[in-house]
Each structure stands twice: as C-alpha cells, then as structure tokens.
Input
Amino acid sequence: MKKRTCAIICHGGAGGISFPQRRANGLTKATSIGYGMLTQGRSSLDAVQRAIEILEDTSIFNAGTGSSLNLAGVAEMDAALMTSDMRFGGVGAITDVRNPIAVARFVMERTDHLLLCGDQALRFARLMNVPRYNPATKEKKRIWRRQKKARGNRYFKKVKNFVTHYGTVGAVAVDTRGLISIATSSGGITFRLPGRVGDTPLIGTGTYADRHGGVSATGHGEQIMRHMIAFRAVSLMQRLSARAAAQKTMSYAKRHQCACGLIGIDKRGAVVWAHNTKAMSWCFIKKGTLRLFKY
Output
C-alpha cells in the first residue's frame, strides 16, 4: 500500500487574537511535535491528542490550564476526538484534570460509550488514574472576579465581546495510512451557567470526521450546535474541494449569525482553514513546510 502524505493543522480559537506571539509559539510547538510523530509513523490520533495536550498546557488558550470559569468560578471543560473510521470519545463539563483530551481518549478506547459528563466523567478519570489538577489560573480568576463585580450572579444573555467569552483549540491530522483524526478542547464561555456543555464534545457540531474528511470548529458554541458546522463542512467535502466546502460553510454560518471558524483536512489530504470572525490563529505543516497565521 502506497504511503500517503501526512499533514497536521491546529487552531487556537476564532475571534480577536490577544497575545499573538504567545499563541504563535504554542501553535508552532504543538503542530511541530504532532507532525514529528506523523513522520515517525505514529497514528494521526496520537498526533492530534499530543498537539491538543500541548495547547491545553499553554495557558494563553482557553482549554485545559487557563480555561474560562463559569458562574460559580469553576473551570468546567469539554473535549473530544474523532477519526475517519468513526471512532469517537468525548467529555463534557469535566473539572479538576489537566488534559481533558486524554480523558476523552480513555472514553473512546476503554468504554462502550461516546460521551461522559460532569461528576461521572471526573469519577471515570480517577478510575483511569488521571491525577487531580486545578486548571484555573490567576489570570482567569481575576477575569472572573471582574465579571462577578460587574454582573453580580447574572450570567450573560447577549455577548458583545467575542474574544472575552469564547475559545477552543483544535487539531486535525492525516497519517501515512490515510486515517484522518480530529481533536478539540475548550474551556467554554466565561461566566456561563454551571453544567453547560458546548459544541466541542458533540458529534457533528464542533468535531466531526468520516471518510470524506475531518473538521474541528471554534466559535459561538450554541450557534455551532444549532447549525452542525463541522458535519456541514465535512459533508460538503464529498462533492467540493476542501477550500470550497469551508468557504461555503462560513458563508452559511455568517447568514445565520454564527460567529465561528474551522480547520480541516479532506480525503485527498488538502488542508483548509476558514473563519467569519475578525481573526483566527492557526498553524499547519504539510510536506515539511510550516505555515502560520499572520499577526
């Protein structure tokens, strides 16, 4: 069997881009390490998981360490992985772990289920020997205190400042065997209601892959869920190029007031990124060449 050309693309969220150098450094590291794994013959699933773990550990991103805090001041996180042969694992509203994406991988490989949430997701993580870890940083605690002072105990209903409230990290890769894998992780919306689960761990909304390609989406989770952004983009890849599918999806999203972005790879190995927001941070490597968002 002829080996395929491997590639990986990562994103650090759509909206505005605060601290662009820190974002660029984190994305470059995650993408480079993920690509190195692919060139060594590792699976795309291993590569995207590792890339996301690096981004979860880079506190500038809203995932893992540095996740946004909910109304109660707790970091509840979502994460998921999916492959083009339809394997899936996800966690929703999980707390007190360093890398939610690793717990999602355990759900995929150690259970018959697709998604575990809340306290029982955390209990499962402990059964998998995942140690206790508080992902809330001093910076996010300061933001939470400012929000609480301004809002009291009222959560937002209409968001005016996109970059303050949203954030996700994602990775899509294809390995030398042609397997496409996606991983997405999110710290959610600042000052959201406890127990809120976003688009990230739901199949077809923020994370989706099948034999036509794979997509990780980022942006306003509730609208991404309503319009099935990841599934919509991958479905279009069946008859359109990756670029055309992404652009068509973004045009649709804009018409329906869904502020979002996406990254993806199709069955031919074409890499794509697109957004209808002010900006989106991304990085990809294909055939040894690295490209990075402009800042």
Notes: The chain has one domain: 7-292. The chain has nine helices and twelve strands.
